Amino acid sequence: MDYLKEFISKLQNLDHSKRVDNVFQDFLKLSTYAIAQQFYRSPEIEQNYLDIIDGYTKEQAEEFSKLLAFLVMALEEKHQDFLGCVYMKLNLGNVATGQFFTPYHVSKMMAEICFVDIEKQLEERDFITLSEPCCGSGAMIIAYAQTLKEQGYNYQNQLFVEAVDIDELCFLMTYLQLSLYGIPARVMLGDTLAWKFSQMFYTPMYFINGFFYKLKKQNKVPKTDTDSIITPTQLSLFKEFMV
Ligand SMILES: C[S@@+](CC[C@H](N)C(=O)[O-])C[C@H]1O[C@@H](n2cnc3c(N)ncnc32)[C@H](O)[C@@H]1O
């Protein structure tokens, strides 16, 4: 099945009264909230989800879950930047912020070029860290994770990623794709140059594989403006999850 073609056609036909970029953004938000909420269990996330889904009929809401199923099946098939392709095909890129994503095969080649000294690094510590300050839809991160896997490493345990983008769609696309590939990551919406952020989510694998403690052991628990983004409710649940 051509998942990309099916996904775009479903997206374009989901609600003719709305612009397709708005429907795409709603899809990304609903899917992000559905995944993150399993770990954050936050009233704010719940409310944000309900506010969006209220704008659609029951049938349309079901179409969103089918879109998520297409995304999952496409990512299961192979490592790729599926949402980045949707984004580029729908012409959603903002020229002002340089939103032209690197084609996946180029990201893969770059990941292979950068793949040096990993064995030595992993002899000295449990995992390696990767920073992507302008992540787009996360293609370079996915390609790096794929390369780690091909070389016999388990990126779900041996990699921690910090990804940032100034654009909300990019922030959401990266969060979703890294979550579904099981990449442990902290994904932030903000300006890398000013080091100011307005939203942040950890992917499920961060929690599942105990990265809070792994980072603490390496003195790498980040101390940034984002710490204040976590609400008290989230923080208590966060700690509970970490025990
Ligand atoms: C050329 S794209 C590259 C995306 C990705 N690294 C790739 O190779 O596919 C540049 C990205 O940087 C983001 N960006 C631009 N200025 C930024 C800033 N000050 N802080 C964070 N992200 C920024 C844009 O939104 C865009 O997604």
Estimate what percentage of residues fall within beta strands.
5-15%
Bound compounds: S-adenosylmethionine
User: In whole angstroms, how far apart are the ends?
Assistant: 43 Å
- What's the gyration radius in Å? 18 Å
The largest sheet, given as strand count, sense and whether it forms a barrel, is:
4 strands, mixed
Overall pLDDT confidence:
90
**What is the H/E order?**
HHHHHHHEHHEHEEHHH
Physical arrangement of strands within the biggest beta sheet: 1-2-3-4
Note the quaternary state here.
single chain
Helix-strand makeup class:
alpha/beta
Global geometry: globular
Strand tally is 4
How much helicity do the residues have?
Answer: 55-70%
* Count of domain modules: 2
How would you characterize this protein structure?
This protein has 243 residues and is an alpha/beta fold. Mean pLDDT is 90; it is low at 225-243. The chain has a four-stranded mixed sheet with strand order 1-2-3-4. It has helices at residues 3-13, 20-40, 43-53, 58-77, 82-89, 104-113, 118-124, 139-150, 155-158, 168-181, 204-208, 211-217, 232-242, and strands at 128-132, 159-165, 185-191, 196-202. The protein is built from 13 helices and four strands. Helix 1 (3-13) packs antiparallel against helix 4 (58-77), helix 2 (20-40) packs across helix 10 (168-181) and helix 6 (104-113) crosses helix 8 (139-150). The longest helix has 21 residues, at 20-40. The protein folds into two domains: 3-89, no CATH class; 97-242, no CATH class. The radius of gyration is 18 Å and the shape is globular. S-adenosylmethionine binds at residues 97-102, 134-136, 139-140, 164-167, 170, 191-193.
